[in-house]
Protein backbone atom coordinates (compact mmCIF):
# COMPACT_ATOMS: atom_id res chain seq x y z
CA UNK A 1 0.00 0.00 0.00
CA UNK A 2 1.38 3.43 -0.96
CA UNK A 3 2.42 5.72 1.84
CA UNK A 4 0.56 9.03 2.18
CA UNK A 5 2.39 12.17 1.03
CA UNK A 6 3.15 15.25 3.11
CA UNK A 7 4.46 18.37 1.33
CA UNK A 8 6.21 20.95 3.49
CA UNK A 9 6.82 24.44 2.11
CA UNK A 10 9.40 26.43 4.01
CA UNK A 11 11.95 23.91 5.21
CA UNK A 12 14.57 25.38 7.49
CA UNK A 13 16.50 24.20 10.56
CA UNK A 14 13.56 24.85 12.91
CA UNK A 15 9.90 24.05 12.38
CA UNK A 16 10.26 22.92 8.77
CA UNK A 17 12.84 20.23 9.47
CA UNK A 18 11.00 19.15 12.61
CA UNK A 19 7.79 18.75 10.60
CA UNK A 20 9.60 16.72 7.96
CA UNK A 21 11.02 14.35 10.57
CA UNK A 22 7.71 13.97 12.39
CA UNK A 23 5.64 13.18 9.32
CA UNK A 24 8.31 10.79 8.04
CA UNK A 25 8.31 9.00 11.39
CA UNK A 26 4.52 8.93 11.20
CA UNK A 27 4.50 6.94 7.98
CA UNK A 28 4.51 9.62 5.28
CA UNK A 29 6.65 10.19 2.24
CA UNK A 30 7.81 13.79 2.51
CA UNK A 31 8.28 16.45 -0.17
CA UNK A 32 10.60 19.22 0.99
CA UNK A 33 10.06 22.59 -0.71
CA UNK A 34 12.17 25.70 -0.20
CA UNK A 35 14.22 28.16 -2.22
CA UNK A 36 17.70 26.73 -1.66
CA UNK A 37 18.40 23.34 -3.25
CA UNK A 38 21.68 23.13 -1.36
CA UNK A 39 19.93 23.50 2.00
CA UNK A 40 17.13 21.16 0.95
CA UNK A 41 19.65 18.46 0.10
CA UNK A 42 21.28 18.93 3.50
CA UNK A 43 17.94 18.58 5.29
CA UNK A 44 16.85 15.62 3.16
CA UNK A 45 19.83 13.63 4.47
CA UNK A 46 18.26 13.88 7.91
CA UNK A 47 14.79 12.68 6.87
CA UNK A 48 13.77 9.22 5.68
CA UNK A 49 11.60 8.95 2.57
CA UNK A 50 12.16 12.58 1.54
CA UNK A 51 12.51 14.25 -1.86
CA UNK A 52 13.50 17.84 -2.56
CA UNK A 53 11.82 20.45 -4.76
CA UNK A 54 13.30 23.96 -4.90
CA UNK A 55 10.72 26.70 -5.36
CA UNK A 56 9.79 30.20 -4.25
CA UNK A 57 6.53 30.50 -2.31
CA UNK A 58 6.19 34.08 -3.54
CA UNK A 59 6.19 32.95 -7.20
CA UNK A 60 2.98 31.18 -8.34
CA UNK A 61 4.67 29.69 -11.41
CA UNK A 62 7.49 28.30 -9.30
CA UNK A 63 4.97 26.73 -6.92
CA UNK A 64 2.97 25.21 -9.77
CA UNK A 65 6.08 23.70 -11.32
CA UNK A 66 7.25 22.25 -8.01
CA UNK A 67 3.89 20.69 -7.19
CA UNK A 68 3.62 19.18 -10.64
CA UNK A 69 6.96 17.52 -9.99
CA UNK A 70 5.74 16.29 -6.60
CA UNK A 71 2.63 14.80 -8.21
CA UNK A 72 4.69 13.11 -10.92
CA UNK A 73 7.19 11.64 -8.46
CA UNK A 74 5.10 10.93 -5.36
CA UNK A 75 1.42 11.21 -6.22
CA UNK A 76 -1.28 13.47 -4.82
CA UNK A 77 -0.51 15.35 -1.60
CA UNK A 78 -2.42 14.20 1.49
CA UNK A 79 -1.08 16.83 3.90
CA UNK A 80 0.24 20.29 3.04
CA UNK A 81 2.25 22.11 5.71
CA UNK A 82 2.59 25.78 4.78
CA UNK A 83 5.48 26.83 7.00
CA UNK A 84 6.41 30.01 5.14
CA UNK A 85 6.88 33.40 6.73
CA UNK A 86 8.69 36.56 5.86
CA UNK A 87 8.52 40.30 5.87
CA UNK A 88 10.44 43.46 6.60
CA UNK A 89 10.89 44.70 10.13
CA UNK A 90 10.26 48.43 9.97
CA UNK A 91 8.01 51.11 11.38
CA UNK A 92 5.06 52.40 9.34
CA UNK A 93 6.92 55.50 8.20
CA UNK A 94 9.82 53.40 6.87
CA UNK A 95 7.83 50.54 5.30
CA UNK A 96 7.83 50.67 1.51
CA UNK A 97 5.26 49.50 -1.01
CA UNK A 98 7.76 46.86 -2.08
CA UNK A 99 7.98 45.64 1.53
CA UNK A 100 4.22 45.25 1.68
CA UNK A 101 3.93 43.57 -1.69
CA UNK A 102 6.66 41.05 -0.90
CA UNK A 103 5.19 40.18 2.51
CA UNK A 104 1.74 39.60 1.03
CA UNK A 105 3.13 37.47 -1.83
CA UNK A 106 4.97 35.24 0.62
CA UNK A 107 2.41 34.85 3.38
CA UNK A 108 -1.06 35.30 1.89
CA UNK A 109 -0.84 34.85 -1.88
CA UNK A 110 1.71 32.07 -1.37
CA UNK A 111 -0.71 30.17 0.87
CA UNK A 112 -3.56 30.55 -1.60
CA UNK A 113 -1.46 29.42 -4.56
CA UNK A 114 -0.02 26.46 -2.68
CA UNK A 115 -3.46 25.38 -1.53
CA UNK A 116 -4.79 25.62 -5.07
CA UNK A 117 -2.13 23.14 -6.17
CA UNK A 118 -3.26 20.42 -3.72
CA UNK A 119 -7.01 21.02 -3.47
CA UNK A 120 -8.02 19.07 -6.63
CA UNK A 121 -6.15 15.96 -5.53
CA UNK A 122 -7.55 16.15 -2.01
CA UNK A 123 -11.10 16.57 -3.30
CA UNK A 124 -10.61 13.58 -5.58
CA UNK A 125 -9.39 11.50 -2.62
CA UNK A 126 -12.21 12.76 -0.43
CA UNK A 127 -9.94 14.14 2.26
CA UNK A 128 -6.69 15.80 3.23
CA UNK A 129 -5.20 18.40 5.52
CA UNK A 130 -3.70 21.87 5.10
CA UNK A 131 -1.70 22.92 8.16
CA UNK A 132 -0.56 26.57 8.30
CA UNK A 133 2.17 28.08 10.49
CA UNK A 134 0.87 31.47 11.53
CA UNK A 135 2.14 34.06 13.99
CA UNK A 136 0.97 36.26 16.84
CA UNK A 137 1.51 39.19 14.48
CA UNK A 138 -1.62 38.09 12.62
CA UNK A 139 -3.73 39.33 15.52
CA UNK A 140 -1.48 42.08 16.89
CA UNK A 141 0.48 44.51 14.76
CA UNK A 142 3.57 46.03 16.37
CA UNK A 143 5.56 49.19 15.68
CA UNK A 144 8.15 47.30 13.62
CA UNK A 145 5.97 44.57 12.11
CA UNK A 146 3.99 46.75 9.73
CA UNK A 147 4.31 44.60 6.60
CA UNK A 148 4.73 41.26 8.36
CA UNK A 149 1.71 41.68 10.64
CA UNK A 150 -0.54 42.86 7.81
CA UNK A 151 0.49 39.92 5.65
CA UNK A 152 0.05 37.40 8.45
CA UNK A 153 -3.40 38.84 9.18
CA UNK A 154 -4.24 38.37 5.50
CA UNK A 155 -2.89 34.81 5.70
CA UNK A 156 -5.20 34.15 8.65
CA UNK A 157 -8.15 35.41 6.61
CA UNK A 158 -7.18 33.21 3.64
CA UNK A 159 -6.95 30.27 6.04
CA UNK A 160 -10.47 30.96 7.31
CA UNK A 161 -11.82 31.08 3.76
CA UNK A 162 -10.04 27.84 2.90
CA UNK A 163 -11.42 26.13 6.01
CA UNK A 164 -15.00 27.21 5.43
CA UNK A 165 -14.84 26.13 1.79
CA UNK A 166 -12.94 22.88 2.23
CA UNK A 167 -14.18 21.47 5.55
CA UNK A 168 -17.50 20.26 4.07
CA UNK A 169 -15.44 18.46 1.44
CA UNK A 170 -13.53 16.51 4.10
CA UNK A 171 -10.37 18.62 3.96
CA UNK A 172 -9.09 19.84 7.33
CA UNK A 173 -7.56 23.32 7.41
CA UNK A 174 -5.86 24.48 10.62
CA UNK A 175 -3.90 27.59 11.55
CA UNK A 176 -1.30 27.62 14.32
CA UNK A 177 -0.67 30.96 16.00
CA UNK A 178 2.95 30.51 17.06
CA UNK A 179 3.78 32.92 19.87
CA UNK A 180 7.39 32.89 20.98
CA UNK A 181 10.98 32.33 19.91
CA UNK A 182 11.96 29.03 18.31
CA UNK A 183 14.84 27.22 20.01
CA UNK A 184 17.71 27.37 17.50
CA UNK A 185 21.46 27.90 17.84
CA UNK A 186 21.13 31.36 16.30
CA UNK A 187 18.30 32.42 18.63
CA UNK A 188 20.23 31.11 21.63
CA UNK A 189 23.21 33.17 20.49
CA UNK A 190 21.11 36.33 20.18
CA UNK A 191 19.41 35.70 23.54
CA UNK A 192 22.12 34.02 25.63
CA UNK A 193 20.64 34.99 29.00
CA UNK A 194 17.20 33.50 28.41
CA UNK A 195 16.33 30.28 30.28
CA UNK A 196 15.45 27.08 28.46
CA UNK A 197 11.79 27.57 29.33
CA UNK A 198 11.69 30.78 27.29
CA UNK A 199 11.98 28.98 23.94
CA UNK A 200 9.48 27.08 21.80
CA UNK A 201 10.75 23.62 20.85
CA UNK A 202 10.35 22.87 17.14
CA UNK A 203 9.84 19.16 17.78
CA UNK A 204 6.93 19.91 20.11
CA UNK A 205 5.33 22.23 17.56
CA UNK A 206 5.73 19.56 14.88
CA UNK A 207 4.17 16.92 17.12
CA UNK A 208 1.13 19.12 17.74
CA UNK A 209 0.70 19.83 14.02
CA UNK A 210 1.09 16.13 13.15
CA UNK A 211 -1.67 15.10 15.54
CA UNK A 212 -3.94 17.96 14.45
CA UNK A 213 -3.61 16.84 10.84
CA UNK A 214 -4.95 13.44 11.90
CA UNK A 215 -7.83 14.59 14.13
CA UNK A 216 -11.17 12.78 13.82
CA UNK A 217 -13.65 14.73 11.69
CA UNK A 218 -16.11 15.08 14.55
CA UNK A 219 -13.72 17.37 16.46
CA UNK A 220 -11.53 19.39 14.12
CA UNK A 221 -9.42 22.30 15.32
CA UNK A 222 -9.25 25.39 13.12
CA UNK A 223 -7.07 27.77 15.15
CA UNK A 224 -4.62 26.88 17.90
CA UNK A 225 -2.22 29.07 19.88
CA UNK A 226 1.19 27.58 20.64
CA UNK A 227 3.44 29.27 23.19
CA UNK A 228 5.78 28.32 26.05
CA UNK A 229 4.00 28.07 29.38
CA UNK A 230 5.92 31.11 30.68
CA UNK A 231 5.05 33.36 27.71
CA UNK A 232 3.18 36.55 28.62
CA UNK A 233 0.18 37.20 26.39
From TrEMBL:
Entry superkingdom: Bacteria
Signal peptide: none
Pfam families: adh_short
InterPro entries registered for this protein in UniProt: NAD(P)-bd_dom_sf (IPR036291), SDR_fam (IPR002347)
Protein known as: SDR family oxidoreductase
Taxonomic source organism: Iodidimonas gelatinilytica
SUPFAM superfamilies with a match to the protein in the record: NAD(P)-binding Rossmann-fold domains
Amino acid sequence: MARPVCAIIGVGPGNGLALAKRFSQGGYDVALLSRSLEKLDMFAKQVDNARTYPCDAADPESLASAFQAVANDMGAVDVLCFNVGGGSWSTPDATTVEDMDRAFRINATGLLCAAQQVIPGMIKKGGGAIMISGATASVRGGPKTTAFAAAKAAQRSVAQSLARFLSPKGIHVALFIIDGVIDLPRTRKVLPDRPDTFFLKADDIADTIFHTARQPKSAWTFEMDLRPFVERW
